[in-house]
From TrEMBL:
Gene3D superfamilies cross-referenced by the UniProt entry: 3.30.1490.310, Ribonuclease Inhibitor (3.80.10.10)
GO cellular component, one term: plasma membrane
InterPro entries: BRI1_island_dom, Leu-rich_rpt, LRR_dom_sf
Protein name in the entry: non-specific serine/threonine protein kinase
Source species of the chain: Anthurium amnicola
Membrane topology of the entry: Single-pass type I membrane protein
Listed EC numbers: 2.7.11.1
Amino acid sequence: KLAILQLGNNSLSGAIPPSLGTCRNLIWLDLTLNQLTGPIPASLASQTGLISPGAVSGKHFAFLRNEGGTSCADSGVLVEFAGIRPERLASFPLVHACPTTRIYTGTALYTFSGNGSIVYLDLSYNSLTGTIPDNMGAMGYLQVFNLGHNQLTGPIPDTFGGLKSVGVLDLSHNHLSGTIPAALGSLSFLVDLDVSNNNLTGAIPFLGQLTTFPPSCYENNSGLCGMPLPPCGASGPGTPDATTRPGSGDRGSGFLGGSIVVGIAISVLIVLAC
């Protein structure tokens, strides 16, 4: 029974087969660094599995998250799906070759029948297009979710608040638009978020851990603002602030002066009438 499918760093082309969603025991899918095109099959999120205890679930794994350039792109992959000792990680060559890489460790929990028993899904560094399927937010067991470096468009689905186990979420280097869903602030296990290099706009939700990530996780989105980026509505050169808008400083005195004139005119009319 197929539980782990690693086909990363090859020259695979064409579309991702929707039939992968029928692999009932698949919990690990790595297709990074290929030449895949077309949309992400929604069926991947509908995949349901029942993993026998002791077969794959309950094992430890490590994921090396590349924060450097393309020369270290292949470091965003699985290190080992077994018992991992600290000395094993220290001896891993990519840790030294790519010093900007962070390590995320986790455990594949027992999975039961239900939407999306996949715990690791890496489709990064391809040419995937279209929008992110909404039902991917139902993948409650997913711990590493990497869609970075593709050509995806549309918004980040609001349903991503359902990714209750996710620790790594990389949506960087796409063409995503819209705002960052407030639902992402409810992801209590999220330790690594990257939505940089997109077309996102609006304020970063002041919720959960979203404001604790470094600015680099949000950079190159010209419309984003708020912690940890500059505050929303910050005045730029030549852009008048609301409190110093031309004429706004004189509005109160002008209104007061007008009231005095009107008051005097009424008083004069009353005197003449008498």
